[in-house]
Amino acid sequence: MKSFGDLFSDSWRKYKENFSLFLKIFLIFSAIPSIIFSIAVFMISRDYYSIGLTDYSALVLPDLIANPFSLILIIALGVVIFILDYIMMLSFFYITIYSKKNMRLKEAVKGGLGYFWKFAGLSIVIFLIILGIFSPLILFLIIGSIYNLAELPFLIIFIILLIALIIPLVIFTVYWSFSPYILINENIRIWASLKKSQSIIKGRWWKVFGYGLLFMIITIGISILFSVPEMIFNIYNFLVDLPMERIAVEYSWGSLITAFILGIISMISSLITTPLQILFMNNFYSEMKRSK
After folding, report:
1. Hey, how many other C-beta atoms are within 10 angstroms of the C-beta on 225?
2. Which domain holds residue 136?
3. Is residue 67 classed as helix, strand or coil in its secondary structure?
4. What is the 8-class DSSP label of residue 268?
5. Distance from the CA of 64 to the CA of which of 98, 191, 203, 258 falls in 20 to 30 A?
6. Which CA distances in Å does 160 have to 129, 153, 156, 163?
7. Count of domains for the chain
8. What would the pLDDT profile of 172-188 be if each residue is shown by its tens digit?
9. Is this structure's pTM higher than 0.85?
């Protein structure tokens, strides 16, 4: 069984080998659509700021609701962005699992799309199970809101119940962490992939949890590193108190350019962490399967 360092090194090597393909797919299905979506939202929001509105959540959103065309446009673009991101993820999975030298963009996207409905089904099944796990908490919140339960006892019970439900959630999340790779690699049914993932991990749960936690810490570190410019920009905005009459001027193309630059930095972080995570988990799954 390979160590965490060996698995990570192997994943990084494969990431570099397929970087150009990852980059093309990321640009087409995530970066460019996200930029278009951001510009569309900016142009709509800018109209409200241009007349002196400064409380975005209190004023702009109700006005958007009052303007059905703008609201429908934003929702439609959001749905398109979600679907394109989903296709990007499927393509990344296909590249990772069916690793071929000089794989073309069309082959990666077409191959990923072949698992569109299976992946959707797997996501829905897992979502419904998670919903079932948290149903007692949801029911408790509904009862509390109806009968106006005392704040402190209600809060204590809520925290205890939340912790009690998070534990099985973490357990099942770890047990099913290999199911997407099994679903594509072995082309079996959704429930069978969940059961097989649990079978591979059974008896080695803590190892999978530990490796997953280590990788998560690394990805969080990468995300924090790339979020430094955004934090500096937010601190600057907090320290600089703009007069009310300058709000409409400041919320202009300069803001869009700044947001664009910060968005690009954030996208670079996603371009690194997303494919790398898929590569790492696939390598880990293959190693666990061999050593079972």
Report:
1. 11
2. 4-290
3. coil
4. H
5. 258
6. 20, 11, 6, 5
7. 1
8. 999 999 999 999 888 88
9. no
